[in-house]
Design goal:
Elements lengths: L1 H12 L6 E9 L5 E9 L4 H10 L1 H11 L9 E6 L2 H13 L1
């Protein structure tokens, strides 16, 4: 699921310049009804704006994902997207350690 979502975002971000969205990890509920998708967005300044757009288009992304996984999954889970800010956190810790 993570690989297919990464491919969907790669194809969509190829249309825009200066934006990279990668799927850092996906957590699926035990009953496969909900998937929490954590996204790493570069540049991080546009993260909130892009996440709002992605959540608004979650149904379309789920539809694309269902088409790609139709032979592997019986039912495609509902997608909820979150920003993975671990890289920003690591960068902040590095800055603090340099001081």
């Amino acid at each position: 699921m993570q690989k297919e979502l990464s491919e969907i975002f790669r194809l969509e971000t190829a249309k825009t310049t200066g934006v990279i969205i990668s799927v850092s990890h996906v957590r699926v509920s035990p009953d496969l009804s909900v998937a929490r998708v954590h996204l790493s967005i570069f540049p991080s300044e546009r993260g909130a704006e892009l996440l709002t757009n992605i959540n608004a288009n979650a149904a379309g992304i789920r539809y694309d994902l269902a088409g790609r996984l139709r032979h592997q999954l019986r039912r495609t889970p509902e997608l909820t997207f979150y920003i993975d800010d671990s890289l920003d956190y690591i960068e902040h810790i590095d800055e603090l350690l340099k001081k």
